[in-house]
Structures are given as structure tokens and as C-alpha cells.
Amino acid sequence: xxxxxxxGRTVAITGSTGGLGTALAAALRARGANLALLDLDADRxxxxxxxxxxxxxxxxxxxxxxxxxxxxxxxxxxxEHFGRLDVVVxxxxxxxxxxxxxxxxxAFERVIDINLTGVWRTFRAALPHVREHRGYxxxxxxxxxxxxxPLQGSYTxxxxxxxxxxxxxxxxxxxxxxxxxxAHPTFFRTPLMDDIVAxxxxxxxxxxxxxxxxxxxxxxxxxxxLVGGIEKRADLIVAPKTNTLLAKAPGLFRPLxxxxxxxxxxxxxxxxxxPTGWHDHDVLDRHNSSTTSSLxxx
Length: 298
Hints:
Largest sheet: 7 strands, parallel
CATH architecture: 3-Layer(aba) Sandwich
CATH topology: Rossmann fold
Strand content: 5-15%
Number of domains: 1
Mean pLDDT: 87
Radius of gyration: 20 Å
CATH class: Alpha Beta
Strand order of the largest sheet: 3-2-1-4-5-6-7
CATH superfamily: NAD(P)-binding Rossmann-like Domain
Order of helices and strands: EHEHEHEHEHEHHHEHHHH
Low-confidence stretches: 290-298
Helix content: 40-55%
Structural class: alpha/beta
């Protein structure tokens, strides 16, 4: 496969000032990529950009993956600033650790909204720009998409959902020349991981992450895998590679299923689909009415 040369291309990263975002941005800049750095904290994103070079090669934008309009504005601004947008990495994410019986429902919903719906919003906002250059969309999922730990229902559900969603969106965009990938690293050292190690519940489950399947790997291992995956426009990125069989096992038959859906059929279905997501609007009206009634009766 021809290497997807990153020199002169623009890569946008959400959650750019986090541990993984910071390391990935530096590695991509070393490959010659221009960087659009998106983060909740605009000041931190700006400082990160300045540390990587002049604004001709790195610049920051405030963005919240829970806000589609804000993401659209940020990515449009990045595309106008650099003249193009080739790769978008949906890297914003959070975690929780508590059993279903005691977890605050708002915490569950927040994880899903950021980790799963936030990826969808990021891809949706990026698509008009990435499509123009037949680029690549990458979501940071996790090994947790395949290995489902207790006390992490919201996190594992969100990461498995990201994996499945990327498989679906890849088929939608294949005929447009846009690649879609999901990345599935195991545990690696970041401030988020520090919280998990310090959590008594996390330590009980994973024993400090110093051995076995959940042994922590250096962040460089993850970053190298991500950069290599972007340069291959990979469908699936696994770090470390020793976990590849575990990651690929659930999708062994996916290539067979993919061939069932022909590109011309997908393109036609895209044209025919109602933007509301429902062909029968009476069904949608009944759903909204039922939801309103249910909420008002509480």
C-alpha cells in the first residue's frame, strides 16, 4: 500500500491537549503535518500550538465535542486557515468507574455523549472538508471495545459503539474515497490513566496494570501505532500489536459482510435516505409524543 504522506497535509485533533493528543500532535508535526488543535481549553490549545511552531503550521481552536455547531465552526476555521483539511482525529474522551447500581445516571450519559456521540459529531463536522481531499477520519476507541471490564459499562459501551460506528461510516464513505479507522490501544500512561491506577476499584480490577493482558504500555508505542495507521489509512489500529488477534476476532466475518453492500447501492441509499433518519414521519411524531408524555408523567 502506498504511504499516505503527511507532509503539508492538515490534521485536526480533538482533545488535543490531553496526554495522547499532546504526544500525537508532536509526532505528526515531526512528519511534516500542519496541525489544527481543538480543545475545550482555548488557552491551552493556543499554548500547545505555539510550542509546535508558527501559526502557519500549528494553530488552536476552542471546541466542545458536545456542540456540533461549535465543531463545524472550528473545523471550517481550520480548513480556511490552512487551505485544506485532510485528516481528523476524534480523540476527546472521558472515563468513569462505578457499578450500574450506584453510578450517577448523568455520569453515564456524559460518557456516551462525549466518547460516542462526540465522535459522530466530529466526523459529521469534518466530512465536507475531508471529502474534498479524499482524506481520512480516525476515532480513538480502546481495547475496551473488545474486552469488557466490570464497573465500566459506560466506557466499554461507548468504545464498542465507536468501533461499530466506524465500520458503518466507512461503508458510507468508501465510494467517496474517504477512509475511516478506529484505534484500539490498551492501557498507557496519561493523567486519565493515573486516576484509574489511583482509584481503589481500578487497582482491585487491574492490579496496577503492571502485568498480563492489561499491562500498561509506553505512550510512544501507542503514538507510533497511530501515526503508522494514519499513514496507511488503516481500518483498524491496535496497540500493542500483540493484542491484534483479540481485536480482530469479533470482526473476522466483517469483510464478507462488507462485500454484500455494493458501492453503487450504498451511494443510491445515501441519496434516498431522509435526513431525519425516519422515512415515516408519523413514526417520528409518535416517538416524540410518547417521549414527551413519558417525561411529563414523571
